[in-house]
UniProtKB/TrEMBL annotation:
GO cellular component, one term: cytoplasm
GO MF annotations in UniProt: dipeptidyl-peptidase activity; metal ion binding
The name this protein goes by in its record: Uncharacterized protein
InterPro entries: Peptidase_M49 (IPR039461)
PANTHER family membership: DIPEPTIDYL PEPTIDASE III-RELATED, ZN-DEPENDENT HYDROLASE
Hydrolase is among the record's keywords: yes
Keywords associated with the record: Hydrolase, Metal-binding
Source organism: candidate division WWE3 bacterium RIFCSPLOWO2_01_FULL_41_18
């Protein structure tokens, strides 16, 4: 078993029925096997992962795909045939034996499951892991009722592992159960954020109504595949606008992954960097609850604000703009939540500090997961913008923040980034990011940063 690609968390056993515990044991086995498949896909140093032959160039692959479109299908492995020519094999053929084992485990679990929509999902997963119709699988995933205590998302999902074309989907397995903390009120955010859609965003997804957005705040049981090496704070699917119109959007927030990333990294950094007088009135739990809220606000913003054609217009700046937009507009929405009495002033303050400290916590993640730069660059923009406007001051080796000035910086930045996302060109965005994404802070705090080994 490749331990890099399978991760398990302790669960609150008392909350599981006997049958649930049986299902857990069966699906853990399935998760490990998904990790085995991903190990084949994640071929260490090679940019194309295990998806393409190591000696093939981008150009050769593109050329060959003109005659054989299957080569650039997200669900195939590209190989050389006996004559050295490039050809493609579907995942469900390439990994047939392991997929059959996983499929059997899904079927076994489905027979025990009592909640209808979850049972149905397992049945369909059992079928499609062998047949390869992933859109049917995705629809079954969206259809799983929020009332289902157990929840699973499995299949080839997300193209980050393919650094050659950002195309091939990698195997993932996220098995979770409903969290106990009911105080997050996700639907409340949906309402507020929908009302923030700008009038010029006529091409945004205004027509995704609140009842089409399902949000779960879950605890993770185990992770297999790509997410095991970089546990996701949340997932947000589908990507395809037509599927969204038909089936809606689903967001799952993974609380214990957030605890792992923000609790083990961000929290000690917060204590070490922020001025003592400011930080002493914030308990660890209070900061962590607001780290979850920031993720929630980010994901809901990302689900609601999507502009047709933004990818084509913003090109290399698409991901950085979208990620900064989701966080900063999410924070602006949290400000409205204070006015409504849903959040306290102090919650908002903590959310701003979480955003600020990610500049440092995710800097450590970049060393092993370079794709995190898509987010990190936006955190630096926020940090530098706050610094330039006096919302944070450097006081020796500590940061002295002024929360109300930070909020007004977030508000201004939200307006700028909303414009970027809705209508700006790649060049305009690039010059703004060039101005504000300086990495000066890592040099300034290098003595402190060198102490940590995350
Ligand atoms: Zn995001």
């Amino acid at each position: 078993m490749n331990e890099k690609y399978y991760l398990e968390y302790p669960i609150e056993k008392k909350r599981f029925s006997k049958t649930d515990l049986k299902i857990v044991e069966i699906l853990k086995e399935a998760g490990k096997k998904v990790g085995e498949i991903f190990a084949k896909q994640a071929d260490g140093d090679f940019k194309g992962g295990g998806f393409y032959p190591t000696d093939a160039t981008r150009k050769e692959i593109e050329e060959a795909s003109k005659k054989e479109p299957k080569i650039l299908d997200p669900y195939t492995v590209v190989k050389r045939d006996s004559s050295g020519k490039l050809c493609a094999v579907y995942y469900h053929e390439e990994y047939r034996d392991v997929l059959k084992e996983i499929s059997d485990l899904f079927l076994k679990a489905s027979k025990l499951a009592s909640e209808k929509s979850f049972k149905k999902y397992l049945e369909i997963a059992s079928k499609e892991f062998c047949h390869g119709d992933y859109s049917t699988l995705e629809k079954a995933w969206i259809a799983v009722d929020n009332k289902s205590f157990l929840h699973l998302m499995a299949g080839p999902l997300g193209s980050y592992a393919d650094r050659l074309f950002s195309l091939k989907k990698a195997y993932n397995f996220n098995f979770t159960y409903t969290g106990t903390n009911g105080s997050y009120n996700p639907l409340n955010y949906v309402d507020v954020i929908r009302n923030m859609l700008p009038p010029f965003g006529s091409k945004a997804r205004q027509n995704v109504s609140a009842d089409m957005i399902k949000v779960r705040v879950d605890n993770v049981i185990c992770i297999g595949g790509r997410n095991a090496s970089l546990p996701a704070r949340a997932v947000n699917y589908p990507e395809d606008i037509n599927t969204i119109k038909k089936c809606g959007i689903k967001i799952v927030v993974y609380t214990n992954n957030i605890e792992r990333r923000d609790g083990q990294m961000l929290l000690p950094l917060f204590r070490d960097f922020i001025e003592l007088g400011v930080q002493k009135s914030f308990s660890d739990d209070f900061i962590m609850a607001n780290a979850v809220r920031l993720v929630l606000a980010h994901e809901i913003t990302e689900a609601i604000f999507q502009y047709e054609g933004a990818w084509k217009r913003l090109k290399s700046m698409s991901n950085p703009v979208m990620e900064l937009h989701s966080s900063i507009v999410g924070i602006k929405a949290c400000g409205f939540q204070v006015i409504k009495g849903v959040l306290s002033q102090k919650d908002l303050e903590a959310i701003l500090y979480v955003m600020l400290m990610r500049t440092f916590s995710d800097y450590f993640i970049r060393k092993t997961a370079p794709q995190v730069e898509n987010y990190l660059v936006g955190y630096r923009v926020f940090y530098n913008y706050c610094l330039e406007n006096g919302a944070i001051k450097l006081d020796g080796d500590r940061i002295l923040p002024n929360a109300s000035k930070m909020y007004s910086c977030a508000d201004q930045l939200a307006n700028v980034v909303m414009h970027f996302y809705a209508e700006a060109s790649e060049a305009e965005v690039q010059s703004f990011f060039d101005k504000y994404s300086s990495e000066y802070m890592y040099g300034y705090f290098s003595d402190k940063l060198l102490k940590y080994e995350f």
